[in-house]
From TrEMBL:
Its EC number is 3.4.11.2. Residues 447-540 form the Peptidase M1 alanyl aminopeptidase Ig-like fold domain. Its cofactor is Zn(2+). Residues 547-857 form the Peptidase M1 alanyl aminopeptidase C-terminal domain. One of its GO terms (biological process) is proteolysis. This is Aminopeptidase N. The lineage of its organism: Bacteria, Pseudomonadati, Pseudomonadota, Alphaproteobacteria, Hyphomonadales. It comes from Hyphomonas atlantica. CDD domains: M1_APN. Belongs to the peptidase M1 family.
């Protein structure tokens, strides 16, 4: 059966809901196979007198329905696949419905489902309609109370949003608990958890002296591994008070870790539910990247309490209102916890690899889209990461103080409301007196702006001229673009490192800046888009000498790093195209010198030693040949290792005697070590296998152990098999660590490897982390394997997608986005990718997946 692409929802169609839901009382009688949900909705008409009451509902079995105590005959309502409509309802009334649902059969992980034998929920974006009949849209905000009943022995802990109330025993070994949330909220922030957990507890005293009970709920035996998440939570609470003046607003804050989860985590009011990958960590089982991710995701979800929960989105087109802003907040939190320049570089690597790719392909959409087919597919790098960049530009334009004033006004004016991007900008226009009309094109125009730069220097007049030209590429549905307002930090730097710095607001198609330098001046270095002020692609034709000078003289750490990246990119491209057989010695020397020169800041040195990967090179040259790019990258890595061999020996030879600490300082040292381990693995050196195996065996933390294992996974031979077998035997009962075991193989192997991994007894289509550790690690991080010109990579992923999509549409659709770059591929891979997409289009896909496939082919 062929799947039709879903009907699109339009921003311009927005109309307010004609009723207010003043109070929601939910009663859950929890049983895995048949849970009874009773909802008492206190409703009041706010719109037209003849407006029907429309409620969303999906996969619900209606048991009873009554208005003000009187059961309704079937003729009084219309029941469909997607909801319930009541034509003639009073102006104020109470509607009571009872429905039955089956959590144990819910593999889509949206609504109420079971994970690890416990109940949990996921309601964003439209999961609440799978729990009860309700206006499942974010602009309907209400007060919720919840009463749950469940078997006491199996589910001793019963949690929901807000404040805990009455508890007690009922018949048949069951018990109940009541929760009351005093804050009005949209249904997508509803949550419930029931089960047996180990609990890691602590307290936080807020700036006004309120003591908050904090708890992280995890699998039995995992409590100690929740310490870092708790520590991150307390630091987040403090940071939001200090940085934004925001205090927590309930007496309790609960986090629950679940094994089966579609995304990273969810900001339900007072009850955040997390993918366990972003809660559990200790030295032996988690890498520094895991610790970092936990810190930032805990912060992200916590920060949503104000940016998302207290003030929410009017409709899902406004998703960036909460997500872009909250990512911006968590990135700054991480920068304050660690190193600001290192954080900035990591954020930009991610943006370039994922968001720039999205912006350049068939799935491109603006930060605030005007239409969507399936809402789950709107949780994109563009909405999140580019959305965060836009807030960063806003702050840069306003300055820190005015930005904060605007945020204060936003919190003050819109607390308790569901609002739009326009409402948000009105606050900044008011405090600054500026007009952000042109700036807001960042929300409506898709595509990454390209800024080309031409420079000239007149030695007689000592005049520097810099001409900037901008162009926003065409994207689906948007062919003609207007010039954007692009803020760019710039500087002129002389060869002693002295400089003049300013910010240019580049708002026309073209701009020329000229500077007259004093007598005796030499040609200065022009530093542009410092700190990556704007999310643009800078096109600059600099000669090699200037590029090398930039590495030496740049005073902005981002641009210094990027100068090294630019050289490495050019070199990899030249090697991949065969215009050059071997890496240029002087260039490799320069990169090596930059690495060793930064060794007093090992985290930064590690970033310099990390060459741009195929994801970042993909857009540089069309058509792209991932296989050739990967081979060229390895060649350059090998050459770099050759230059750094002694340095690597000494760095890797030192073994730390300090007790393990996940903080920035030690993590930086380990980052350098792992970067060098990566180079060693790519070096092709005879002794690489043995060295890696001994590093693997000697490693006392997961960061280095995994780096060695990843290196080994990419080699052939006995050392590889020994290490993989050893790792599997040691960690077979820890699913998160086993995800890493699957991931390193998928990240380095070919289609045959994937086939083997998918046939492994521990491969589980119902667990998104596991599916991603194989399919996404391959299709999104191992582009040379996935885009194999014979199509083998596509076929093996296609197979997994078809199965995964049946179980979990959100997961299937997410994996499909790996195909988004197919049009930019070299002809062989391109033809295979297209054939695969056509087969998928003809298959019976979920609505979510059909949406991606039709847009990808579109
Ligand atoms: N709102 C979540 C976040 O950004 C993401 C999410 C979306 C989680 C949809 C689950 C489902 O933190
Ligand atoms: Zn979020």
């Amino acid at each position: 059966m062929r799947t039709e692409a879903p009907v699109a929802v339009q921003l311009s169609d927005y109309t307010a809901y004609p009723f207010e839901i003043e109070q929601v009382d939910l009663r859950f009688d929890l049983h895995p196979d048949a849970t009874l949900v009773r909802a008492d909705l206190k409703i009041r008409r706010t719109g037209a007198a003849d407006a029907a009451l429309e409620l969303d509902g999906e996969a619900l079995e209606l048991k009873s329905i009554a208005i003000d105590g009187a059961p309704l005959p079937e003729s009084a309502y219309e029941l469909t696949e997607s909801g319930l409509t009541l034509q003639d309802v009073p102006n104020a009334f109470t509607l009571v419905t009872e429905v039955e649902i089956a959590p144990s059969k819910n593999t889509a992980l949206s609504g109420l489902y079971m994970s690890g034998g416990r109940f949990c929920t996921q309601c964003e974006a439209i999961g609440f309609r799978r729990i009860t009949f309700y206006p499942d849209r974010p602009d309907v905000m209400s007060r919720f109370t919840v009463r749950m009943t469940a078997d006491k022995e199996t589910y001793p802990i019963l949690l929901s949003n807000g404040t805990p109330g009455e508890t007690g025993d009922v018949d048949d070994g069951r018990h109940f608990a009541v929760w009351d949330d005093p804050h009005k909220k949209p249904a997508y922030l509803f949550a419930l958890c029931a089960g047996d957990y180990d609990v890691y507890r602590d307290q936080f005293t807020t700036m006004s002296g309120k003591v908050i009970d904090l708890a992280v709920h995890v699998d039995k035996g995992d409590a100690d591994r929740a310490a870092w998440a708790m520590d991150s939570l307390k630091r987040s609470m403090k940071w939001d008070e200090e940085t934004y003046g925001r205090e927590y607003d309930l007496g309790v804050f609960n986090i629950v870790a679940v094994r089966d989860f579609n995304f990273g985590a969810m900001e339900n009011k007072g009850l955040n539910i997390f993918n366990s990958a972003y809660v559990l960590a200790d030295e032996a089982s988690a890498t520094d990247a895991d610790f970092e991710a936990i810190e930032s995701i805990v912060a992200h979800e916590y920060f949503h309490n104000w940016t998302g929960n207290r003030i929410t989105c009017r409709d899902w087109f406004q998703l960036c209102l909460k997500e872009g802003l909250t990512v911006f907040r968590d990135q700054n939190f991480s920068a304050d916890m660690r190193s600001r320049p290192v954080q900035r570089i990591k954020d930009v690597i991610r943006l370039r690899a994922r968001q720039f790719a999205e912006d350049a392909g068939p799935l491109a959409h603006s930060v605030r889209p005007e239409t969507y087919g399936a809402i789950d597919n709107l949780y994109t790098a563009t909405v999140y990461e580019k959305g965060a960049e836009v807030i960063g530009m806003l702050r840069r334009i306003l300055g820190e103080e005015t930005y904060r004033k605007g945020m204060d006004l936003y919190f003050d004016r819109h607390d308790g409301q569901a609002v739009t991007i326009e409402d948000f900008y009105a606050c900044f226009e008011e405090v600054s007196g500026d007009d952000f009309t042109q700036f807001r094109l960042w929300y409506s125009q898709a595509g990454t702006p390209e800024v080309s730069v031409e420079e000239s220097w007149n030695p007689e007049t000592r005049e520097v001229a810099v001409t900037l030209k901008q162009r926003v590429p065409a994207t689906p549905g948007q062919t003609n673009k207007k010039p954007m307002l692009i803020p760019m930090e710039m500087a002129l730097i002389d060869d002693e490192g002295n400089m003049a710095e300013w910010i240019t607001l580049f708002e026309d198609e073209e701009l020329t800046l000229t500077f007259d330098l004093p007598e005796g001046s030499e040609r200065p270095l022009v530093s542009i888009n410092r700190d990556f002020t704007a999310p643009i692609r800078l096109k600059r034709n600099l000669d090699r000498e200037t590029q090398l000078a930039m590495i030496r003289l740049e005073t902005d750490p981002f641009n210094q790093w990027d100068a090294v990246q630019a050289l490495a990119k050019q070199e990899i491209l030249a090697l991949s195209e065969g215009s050059q057989a071997e890496p240029d010695d002087a260039l490799v020397d320069a990169i090596a010198a930059a690495v060793t020169g930064a060794s007093d800041d090992p985290a930064f040195a590690a970033l310099l030693a990390r060459l741009p990967d195929v994801n970042e090179l993909f857009l540089e040259r069309q058509p792209a040949d991932p296989v050739a790019l990967d081979a060229a990258r390895k060649k350059l890595q090998a050459a770099l290792y050759g230059k750094l061999r002694q340095f690597a020996d000494s760095v890797l030879g030192e073994s730390s005697t300090q007790a393990y600490d996940p903080g920035a300082e030690q993590a930086g040292e380990r980052a350098l070590r792992t970067a060098l381990i990566g180079l060693l693995a790519a070096s092709g050196a005879d002794e690489a296998g043995d060295r890696l195996l001994s590093l693997y065996k000697a490693a006392t933390n997961m960061t280095e152990k995994l780096a060695a294992l990843r290196g080994l996974a990419g080699l052939d031979g006995e050392a590889r098999e020994t290490a993989l077998a050893d790792f599997e035997a040691e960690w077979t009962s820890n699913p998160l660590v086993m995800d890493k075991w699957f991931g390193v193989q998928a990240g380095t192997g070919d289609a045959a490897t994937i086939e083997k991994l998918a046939a492994h007894s521990a491969f589980d289509l119902r667990n998104p982390n596991r599916v991603r550790s194989v399919a996404a690690a391959f299709a999104m991080q191992n582009l040379a394997g996935f885009h194999a010109p014979d199509g083998s990579g596509y076929r093996v992923v296609e197979d997994i997608i078809l199965k995964a999509d049946k179980v979990n549409p959100a997961l299937g659709a997410r994996l499909l986005t790996a195909f988004e770059q197919w049009r930019s591929l070299e002809p062989k891979a391109k033809a295979e990718a297209e054939a695969c997409l056509r087969r998928l289009q003809a298959a019976d896909l979920s609505k979510n997946s059909a949406d991606i496939v039709s847009r990808a082919l579109g």
